C-alpha cells in the first residue's frame, strides 16, 4: 500500500488520518481548507486530484455530500479500493455511482482517535475477501474490528457509532469517580441490552457495548477535552447521534436513543 487518500477532514476523517499517518503515507482533502491547514498532513488540491494520487480511498464525508464526491472521483476510483465510513450509504449505492469498484463499508467510532475504536466492516459485491481482510487490518490500527452483514450496518451505527456521543451526553455533569462507575454499572449493560434489541447476538452485543464503553472512557481520560466537546464531535449535523440525543433529552432512555439513531440511519440510507 503506497498512499491512503482520505476525503473529508472533519471529526472522523481527521481521527483516521492522524492515526493511520503513524504507519502509512496519508493524503487528505477537505473542501474547507482551514481544517487541514497546519495539521502536519499532506493535502491534495481537490477530490479528483486526491483520488488520482491515492491507491486506496477513504470517504469520510457526510451522507448528504456523497453524490457530488462520487461524481468527482468516478474516473480516478477505477481499480482502487474504496472504503466508506458514512452512516446509511450502502455498498450497492456506491457501486451504482462508481461502476465496478471494490467497496468496503466500515463503521468506526470516535475512540478510533486513540486506537480504541470499535470498527464494524462488510464488503460490497466487487470486493474480495482479501480486500475485506486488508481493510480489517488497516482499521485494526484504530481499534477492535468485527465483520458483520451489511444489513446490520445501520444497527451498528446506532450502537457503537453513536454510542460514545450518548455516553458523553449522559455523564456531562458527573465527576470522574461517578462516571467511571456509571460507565461500567449502567451504560455498558444498557448499551448491550439495546444492541440485542436491535438484532445482535448476545456475544456481539457484549463486544460492541464493552469496546464502545471502554474506548469512550479512555478517550475522555486522554483527550483533554470535556465530555460536552467530545459529544459534539460524535454528533455530526443531521446525523444518527443527533437524532438519538433528542430522545435522551426528552426521556433519558438509552434504548430509545439507540432506536431513534437506527431510525435516522434508515432515513439517511441510500441503498441502490
Ligand atoms: N462523528 C462520528 O463519531 C462518526 C462515527 C462513525 C461514522 N461517522 C461518519 O463519518 C462521516 C463524517 O462524519 P464527521 O462527524 O467526521 O463529519 P464532519 O465533521 O462534518 O466531517 C466531514 C467533512 O467533510 C467535508 N466535506 C464536505 N463535502 C466535501 C467535499 N466535496 N470534499 C471534501 N470534503 C468535503 C466537510 O466540510 P463542511 O463541514 O464544510 O461541509 C467536513 O469538514 C459521516 O458520513 C458519518 O456518518 C461519523
How would you sum up this structure, described in words?
There is one protein chain. The protein is an alpha/beta fold and 272 residues long. The chain folds into 2 domains: 3-150, NAD(P)-binding Rossmann-like Domain (Rossmann fold), CATH 3.40.50.720; 155-268, no CATH class. The protein contains 13 helices and 8 strands. Strands 3-2-1-4-5-6-7-8 form an 8-stranded mixed β-sheet, sandwiched between helices. Helix 4 links the parallel strand 4 (56-59) and strand 5 (81-84). The radius of gyration is 18 Å and the shape is globular. 52% of the residues are buried. The site of NADP nicotinamide-adenine-dinucleotide phosphate has 31 residues, from helix 1 and helix 4.
Structural key phrases:
single chain; 272 residues; alpha/beta; 8-stranded mixed β-sheet; 14% strand; globular
Amino acid at each position: 500500500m503506497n498512499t491512503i487518500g482520505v476525503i473529508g477532514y472533519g471529526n472522523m476523517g481527521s481521527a483516521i488520518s492522524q492515526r493511520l499517518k503513524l504507519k502509512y503515507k496519508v493524503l487528505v482533502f477537505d473542501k474547507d481548507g482551514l481544517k487541514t491547514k497546519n495539521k502536519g498532513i499532506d493535502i491534495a488540491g481537490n477530490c479528483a486530484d486526491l483520488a488520482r494520487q491515492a491507491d486506496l480511498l477513504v470517504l469520510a464525508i457526510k451522507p448528504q455530500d456523497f453524490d457530488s464526491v462520487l461524481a468527482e472521483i468516478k474516473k480516478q476510483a477505477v481499480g482502487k479500493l474504496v472504503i466508506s465510513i458514512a452512516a446509511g450509504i450502502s455498498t450497492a449505492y456506491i457501486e451504482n455511482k462508481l461502476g465496478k469498484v471494490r467497496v468496503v463499508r466500515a463503521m468506526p467510532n470516535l475512540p478510533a482517535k486513540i486506537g480504541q475504536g470499535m470498527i464494524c466492516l462488510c464488503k460490497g459485491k466487487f470486493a474480495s475477501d482479501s480486500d475485506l481482510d486488508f481493510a480489517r487490518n488497516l482499521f485494526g490500527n484504530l481499534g477492535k474490528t468485527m465483520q458483520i452483514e451489511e444489513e446490520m450496518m445501520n444497527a451498528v451505527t446506532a450502537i457503537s457509532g453513536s454510542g460514545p456521543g450518548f455516553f458523553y451526553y449522559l455523564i456531562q455533569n458527573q465527576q470522574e469517580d461517578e462516571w467511571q462507575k456509571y460507565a461500567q454499572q449502567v451504560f455498558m449493560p444498557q448499551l448491550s441490552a439495546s444492541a440485542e434489541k436491535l438484532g445482535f447476538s448476545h456475544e456481539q452485543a457484549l463486544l460492541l457495548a464493552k469496546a464502545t464503553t471502554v474506548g469512550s472512557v479512555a478517550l475522555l481520560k486522554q483527550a483533554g477535552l470535556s465530555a460536552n466537546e467530545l459529544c459534539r464531535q460524535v454528533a455530526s449535523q443531521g446525523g444518527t447521534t443527533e437524532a438519538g440525543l433528542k430522545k435522551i433529552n426528552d426521556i433519558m432512555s438509552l434504548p430509545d436513543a439507540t432506536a431513534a439513531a437506527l431510525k435516522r440511519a434508515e432515513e439517511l440510507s441510500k441503498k441502490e
